[in-house]
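To the wet lab folks,

You asked to see what we're planning to order before we commit. Fair enough. Below is the target structure as tokens, and below that is the sequence we designed to fit it. If anything looks off to you, flag it before the synthesis order goes out.
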């Protein structure tokens, strides 16, 4: 088969089968880190590296409208979400999310979530076993709802957490996982849509300037308020990814188990080590495999071409494991972030570029703040790790330790560790 005809073979099935390994595997054969392929029936250009990040985030090159497949919108992001907008329309919608970048806002969320953690964890001492991934999801749900002004009865925290996790878990799957995600989204869009209507009608009071209040009042570029469904979609676009930080909590536990020397560093209260550990968790463990957009015009990148309307994919997992950028990328080594500061377009687990003007995740600071606080608490907790399946399959997107990370014999420290937030 010639290189050309091979490049025109649709690769959607190998992608589904190989998950995170698919794109890095193809990139290995390209020293220039660019591969032309075909996905979902369209020509696609896949790119990697800090320069490619700047190319990808330049709206003259890549647009988001019509780029995200329906099954991903129907599960992960929601129809009409900020992720799908371009230009001034995106900028105005993004204003809704920019307060998330504010350090006071980050501190507020971290405080609510750590309060929820500190309230919950003592009860683990009386349990035979705790599945950390599941419990972290409930703690994060409690904390983020309190912080965002979303009323939540105690009994509703677990089912809400389950739905939020299902929406993330099923976005790249076929079959039951996918349909579970769709049903979860349908349920929660309806419930939160009713809440938005109640806030607008004045029968429920949203705390002033809370996320709930801002979403209910937000006006789009056309001067109109968001319709009820889109408002629910955007409310979920704050709550759902916050609960997704539970994936990283399970990964942090996995890292502490396999690299126990990090426990001492986290307990020491040295915030530089804590920050380095958290960056390494976000770099090393797989979450977003790649990001996609549509070519806004005929494009050429490092000699490879894609026509207007074709797909452009940024290889997120591959870039976070690129030997040229990281050296020994498959070693978990937080020290690398003490030796070399984080560069904006090098470490891209939550996208690249500037979150104020582009699509980069506006919740990155919150993710880092939450993980710093929860990793320190995890390191301080005493527990045993019984025999279980801790493998993290790269063929599953999103992946996690198969067992969800089970702990037994939990003992809560008498005193909050130095440096805990
Ligand atoms: C598990 C942690 C998280 C991961 C791995 C993650 C990852 C990402 C990625 C890869 C993007 C897409 C960037 C792009 O399209 O260029 C994104 C966008 C976004 N994230 Fe996050 N995120 C996380 C946490 C959060 C949190 C905590 C929030 C809010 C509190 C949040 C809110 C958003 C929003 C609203 C967008 C859309 C931005 C836009 O299109 O302009 N994320 N995130």
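Sequence we intend to order:
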């Amino acid at each position: 088969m010639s290189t050309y005809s091979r490049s025109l073979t649709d690769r959607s099935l190998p992608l589904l089968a190989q998950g995170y390994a698919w794109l890095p595997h193809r990139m290995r054969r390209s020293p220039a880190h660019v591969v032309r392929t075909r996905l979902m029936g369209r020509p696609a250009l896949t790119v990697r590296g800090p320069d490619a990040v700047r190319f990808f985030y330049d709206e003259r090159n890549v647009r988001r409208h019509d780029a995200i497949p329906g099954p991903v919108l129907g599960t992960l992001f929601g129809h009409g979400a900020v992720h799908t907008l371009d230009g001034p329309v995106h900028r105005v919608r993004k204003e809704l999310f920019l307060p998330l970048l504010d350090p006071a806002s980050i501190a507020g969320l971290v405080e609510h979530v750590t309060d929820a953690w500190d309230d919950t964890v003592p009860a683990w001492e009386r349990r035979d076993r705790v599945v950390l991934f599941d419990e972290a999801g409930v703690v994060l749900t409690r904390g983020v709802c309190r912080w965002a002004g979303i009323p939540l009865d105690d009994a509703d925290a677990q089912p809400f957490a389950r739905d939020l996790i299902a929406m993330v878990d099923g976005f790249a799957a076929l079959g039951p996982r996918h349909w579970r995600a769709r049903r979860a989204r349908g349920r929660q869009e309806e419930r939160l849509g009713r809440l938005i209507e109640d806030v607008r009608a004045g029968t429920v009071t949203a705390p002033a300037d809370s996320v709930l209040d801002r979403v209910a009042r937000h006006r789009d570029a056309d001067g109109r308020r968001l319709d009820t469904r889109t408002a629910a979609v955007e409310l979920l676009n704050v709550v759902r990814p916050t609960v997704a930080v539970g994936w990283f909590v399970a990964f942090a536990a996995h890292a502490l188990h396999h690299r126990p020397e990090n426990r001492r560093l986290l307990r020491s209260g040295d915030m530089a080590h804590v920050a380095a550990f958290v960056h390494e968790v976000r770099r090393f463990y797989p979450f977003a495999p790649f990001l996609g957009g549509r070519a806004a015009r005929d494009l050429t990148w490092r000699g490879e071409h894609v026509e207007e309307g074709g797909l452009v994919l940024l290889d997120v997992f591959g870039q976070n494991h690129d030997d040229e950028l990281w050296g020994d990328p498959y070693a978990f080594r937080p020290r690398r972030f003490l030796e070399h500061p984080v560069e904006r377009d090098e470490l891209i687990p939550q996208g690249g570029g500037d979150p104020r003007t582009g699509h980069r995740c506006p919740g990155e600071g919150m993710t880092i703040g939450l993980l710093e606080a929860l990793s320190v608490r995890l390191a301080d907790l005493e527990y045993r790790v019984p025999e279980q399946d801790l493998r993290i399959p790269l063929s599953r997107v999103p992946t996690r330790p198969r067992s969800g990370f089970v702990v037994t014999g939990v003992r809560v420290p008498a005193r909050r560790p130095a440096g805990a937030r």
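Structural context that might help your review: The chain has one domain: 3-411. The two ends are 58 Å apart (CA to CA).

Thanks,
Computational group
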